[in-house]
Design brief:
Strand content of chain A: over 45%
Shape of chain A: globular
Number of strands of chain B: 11
Low-confidence stretches of chain B: none
Order of helices and strands of chain A: EEEEEEEEE
Helix content of chain A: under 10%
Largest interface: A-B, 25 and 27 residues
Oligomer: heterodimer
Strand content of chain B: over 45%
Radius of gyration of chain A: 13 Å
Mean pLDDT of chain A: 92
Structural class of chain B: mainly beta
Helix content of chain B: under 10%
Shape of chain B: globular
Largest sheet of chain A: 5 strands, mixed
Structural class of chain A: mainly beta
Distance between the termini of chain B: 36 Å
Chain lengths: ~110, ~120
């Protein structure tokens, strides 16, 4: 079973920041939080990952709470092309990636 | 550029026929995975292989078979025993288990199988 809980869907206005929450209250100390997204009929695309510290790359920022029980993916200026299903996944080295149902983000013009 | 190639993108087969989906990677990754996705659903793990000549069943292995004779190849056979084979199939790979946490997974672009 997936170790994460995400809202089923969210809307965001084009050009605004999209903040996607994820709960992972049972995360272990050595488990990473990964975010992938899947645009319709394509393979999942890696976005960002982190362990304890906040992370930023050219696509997004990842904010992890101090207790590591939740995190937020931030797309700073959402575009129509960011419309996709976003998966928050806790990755443990000994087990394969387990996907939940993710959050369907709709960016609206 | 390195990556994962799945072929073909679309595949049609008659009911009762076995069909093999191809997955090739040139990333020198040790581990490879097969996932199945149904409309509106997340990905479910079928089989995975951590090393050549070894593989393990995932959550929904019934009706499927795999082989891992080469590091770069992990073909999936959908057999006639699979009751609902029509789905989107995704292949992925990752570096060895110890480093997987740091580098994550790379996915192919998928094969959409339709059984008529």
């Amino acid at each position: 079973d997936a170790k994460t809980t995400q809202p089923t869907s969210m809307d965001c206005a084009e050009g605004r920041a999209a903040n996607l929450p994820c709960n992972h209250s049972t995360i272990s100390g050595n488990e990473y939080v990964y975010w992938y997204r899947q645009i319709h009929s394509q393979g999942p695309q890696y976005i960002i990952h982190g362990l304890k510290n906040n992370e930023t790359n050219e696509m997004a920022s990842l904010i992890i709470t101090e207790d590591r029980k939740s995190s937020t993916l931030i797309l700073p200026h959402a575009t129509l092309r960011d419309t996709a299903v976003y998966y928050c996944i806790v990755l443990s080295g000994n087990t394969p990636l387990v996907f939940g149902k993710g959050t369907r983000l709709s960016v609206i013009a | 550029d390195g990556g994962i190639t799945q072929s073909p993108k679309y595949l049609f087969r008659k009911e009762g026929q076995n069909v093999t989906l191809s997955c090739e990677q040139n990333l020198n990754h040790d581990a490879m995975y097969w996932y199945r996705q149904d409309p509106g659903q997340g990905l479910r793990l079928i089989y995975y292989s951590q090393i050549v000549n070894d593989f393990q069943k995932g959550d929904i292995a019934e009706g499927y078979s795999v082989s891992r004779e080469k590091k770069e190849s992990f073909p999936l056979t959908v057999t006639s025993a699979q009751k609902n084979p029509t789905a989107f199939y995704l292949c992925a790979s990752s570096i060895d288990r110890r480093q997987r946490d740091l580098y994550g997974y790379t996915f192919g672009s998928g094969t959409r199988l339709t059984v008529v």
